[in-house]
Write a structure and sequence with these properties.
The protein is built from seven helices and 16 strands. With about 240 residues, the protein is of the alpha/beta class. It has two domains: about 130 residues, 3-Layer(aba) Sandwich (Rossmann fold), CATH 3.40.50; about 100 residues, Beta Barrel (OB fold (Dihydrolipoamide Acetyltransferase, E2P)), CATH 2.40.50. Strand 1, helix 1 and strand 2 form a beta-alpha-beta unit. The relative contact order is 0.09.
């Protein structure tokens, strides 16, 4: 267990300290706990944890479920929901993330250990299965096929204008005006693309070959206005050699 880095995101300091103490006793490498969304993202960017324990109810405009979506889409790190709130709306929001494990307050040392091991196991199983050929997608050198009912439709990389993330799905917009839908995170999809594609925003990846115009906030591809995120702007300008 030593070497596994775990981040606890909990805005109640006493609870956070108690969780961290138990984790240390179990032999995990425990990072400094975060109390809100922005602190958690800062720590994830700097420390690259192996697992996150997220309290659903966090102070601020973004809660633990918002944070879980960000982690799932941009970092692909396993996480555990920590909650004492079991109202139907919260459960419905959390279910859409298909979290690898839950931890319900109050909990004990064994509950915590079991939840961590289940989350890590489920994450490894998912990674192993992703190495197999996706039943809904087949990739070749310059294109891939997307399954729609009983047919596989060929989509050439050169024909893709851009892709947009919609939670656990990717919408792929092509030059023929069509929109294709696949189940994937943006991180996983982006890794399968050739070099002509570039991430402009946490939710968008564009084909640079179809870039028509750009300003400090957006890129234009045909009739589409696509946002440029602050963290992606400088690299995008370097790629297209703008100062």
């Amino acid at each position: 267990m030593s070497g596994l880095k775990i981040l606890v995101v909990e805005d109640e300091i006493v609870i956070a300290d108690n969780i961290c103490l138990i984790l240390e006793q179990l032999g995990y490498n425990v990072l400094e706990p975060a109390i809100n969304y922005s602190e958690a993202i800062e720590t994830i960017n700097s420390e690259n944890p192996d697992l996150c324990i997220l309290d659903i109810q966090l102070a601020g405009s973004k809660d633990g479920i918002d944070l879980a979506w960000k982690i799932k889409e941009d970092y692909n790190i396993p996480f555990i929901f920590l909650t004492s709130n079991a109202d139907p709306r919260t459960i419905e929001r959390a279910k859409k993330l298909a979290p690898p494990a839950y931890l319900v307050k109050p909990f004990n040392r064994d509950d915590l250990y079991t939840s961590i091991e289940i989350a890590l196991y489920n994450s490894r199983e998912k990674a192993d299965s992703s190495d197999d050929v996706d039943a809904d997608q087949i990739r070749i050198k310059d294109a891939f096929f997307i399954k729609d009912k009983h047919l596989f439709h060929k989509v050439k990389y050169d024909d893709i204008l851009f892709a947009k993330s919609d939670h656990v799905y990717i919408e792929i917009f092509t030059t023929d005006g069509k929109k294709h839908l696949i189940r994937s995170s943006m991180n996983d999809f982006e890794q399968s693309l050739p070099d002509q594609f570039f991430r402009t925003h946490r939710s968008y990846t564009i084909n640079l070959e179809h870039l028509d115009a750009i300003n400090s906030l957006n890129v234009v591809i045909q009739d589409y206005l696509i946002p440029i995120g602050k963290t992606y702007r400088s690299n995008l300008l370097k790629v297209i050699q703008l100062k």
